[in-house]
Amino acid sequence: MEKEEKQKEKKKTTGANVVWIAILALFAAPIGAPILISILIVLLCAALCAALLDMSVFLIAVVGVAAGIKMLLRGILAVSVSFGGFCFITGMGVFMLGISILCAVFGVYFAKWMGRLFVWCTRKVTKKGGSRS
């Protein structure tokens, strides 16, 4: 039994195996390195798209607040001209303010979710998926 274990150890550490592994690594490097770089670039582009999407949601919220305030003031100024116009324009201003607040809240939650997703993916890639505390 001890003889068989020694023979297995000798087979594992022979110089021929090391040479074959080195040759395979040399032949795989021109193919593997560009594929790895391409995968990293695609992942970076996906992260950039998610960040830009979140920034656009916040931009929509800011523009909506500005437009809502403007419409609210226009509606108040239109009360002397037409009561129906006053109600419509003021209502649209309040509606835009509400939608803008919802966009801002959605943007915050989306940013939190993307941050957690990024941490989860990083743990998976680095194999450090420990327990969450």
Write structural notes for this entry:
The structure is a single chain. The protein has helices at about 1-10, 15-75, 85-125. It is mainly α. The mean pLDDT is about 85.
Secondary structure elements and their pairing?
Blueprint: H1 2-12, H2 15-77, H3 83-126
Helix pairs in contact: 2-3
Helix content: over 70%
Order of helices and strands: HHH
The secondary structure category is: mainly alpha
Number of helices: 3
Low-confidence stretches: none
Salient structural properties:
133 residues; 3 helices; rod-shaped
Report a brief summary of the structure:
With 133 residues, this protein is mostly helical. It has helices spanning 2-12, 15-77, 83-126.
